[in-house]
Amino acid sequence: MACITARADAETTHGSVMKTIPNEAPQKVATAIVGRTSDRTVTMRFSQSAVGKPTTIRFAAEATKPGCARVSCVDTAPDAPKTATFRVRSSG
């Protein structure tokens, strides 16, 4: 799991890569570099060693309006509970 959270200034972000194990709290395994090219686009970069050598990585995104705790404030992509799949290219 990868998380992007806003810093206290609400202008900059911090990225983390988390390892998830069923029935356990997520553990941070690496930091990620977060880039913004527009108001609607976010890019995360992290070391492959943080996730090992999978053939695919499943991902989804969830955005919440600042200060809103209601479910109606959550936007997901692709539509929850779906995930998108990124095929990892081998370097060899």
Task: Supply database-style keywords.
92 residues, mainly beta, 2 domains, 4-stranded antiparallel beta sheet, two-stranded antiparallel ribbon, 8 strands
Would you mind describing this structure in some detail?
This protein is mostly beta strands. It folds into 2 domains: 1-52, no CATH class; 54-92, no CATH class. 0% of the residues lie in helices and 49% in strands. It contains no helices and 8 strands. A 4-stranded antiparallel beta sheet has the order 1-2-3-4, with no helix packed on it. A two-stranded antiparallel ribbon has the order 5-8. A hairpin with a 7-residue loop joins strand 2 (13-19) and strand 3. It is globular. 0% of the residues are buried. The model has no long low-confidence stretch (mean pLDDT 82).
